[in-house]
Amino acid sequence: MTNNTPQDTLIGHLTELRKRVVRSLLAIGLGAVVGLVFCKQLYRILQVPMLKALPEGSFFIATTPFESYITYFKVSLLAGLFVASPFVFYQLWRFVAPGLEPREKKYLLPASFVSALLFTGGALFGYFVVFPAGFYYVSLVMNDTAIRLLPKMSDYLGLSVMMLLAFGITFELPLFIFIAGKLGLIDYGFIKRNRRYVIVALFVLAAILTPGPDVLSQLLLALPLWALFEVGGLTLLMIRH
């Protein structure tokens, strides 16, 4: 019988990772093809929170001939990511499956959908709750000035994508805590000892991610993150028992 060396093990992990990444990229690509059909409508939907915050008659601008083409292509990729997110998370869970116990592997499919649900839910929370509040205060500071905000298509998309992905990833917090607990990196005692520091860190993170300087939009993100952190702590109690 041949014993695997650490190098063989590393190569095996890298090969498996490459396979999962390639499959995920193909799924995102297929989703992006669908997104191309609706890219203009999707970008219009992305514009709504900003347009509602701006004075009536405001509009977006493009400063280069092909900016709209590139922007719509990026929108289709973003749509592809969200459409393919259950499959992408399934590939991620399949990658970590060798470290799970046999009885836990049957939960891979539900875990994939929960991961995708949290990711999409975080993005939707950012769009429907944080975007309007943040953009309102961005517009408010320009009242009674000679300045008029005319958002550039590509710049606004870049900001929107960064925030949507950030909200989606941060809403995975309970899963991150659960995985860390399964790996033995943290336990519920760690949560209890460091709760106050984590809460402060979550509020700082919310201040960084929200678009406006106002306290309201920061609280709108920080409080759900706090709740998700506590949910993650409860999963560690389940692991212990």
Description:
The protein is 78% helix and 0% strand. The chain has 241 residues and is mainly α. It is flat and about 65 Å long.
Descriptive key words:
mainly alpha; 241 residues
Helices, strands, pairings?
Layout: H1 6-37, H2 39-53, H3 67-83, H4 85-96, H5 102-105, H6 108-140, H7 153-170, H8 173-182, H9 188-209, H10 215-240
In short, what is this structure?
It contains ten helices and no strands. It is mostly helical. The two termini are 38 Å apart.
Estimate the mean pLDDT confidence. Answer: 88
Please bin the fraction of helical residues: over 70%
State the distance separating the first and last CA atoms.
38 Å
How large is the radius of gyration? 21 Å
Poorly predicted parts? none
Strand fraction: under 5%
Quick one: overall form? flat
Q: Please tally the helical runs, counting DSSP H or I stretches of 4 or more residues.
A: 10
E-strand count: 0
* Sheet with the most strands, sense and barrel status: none
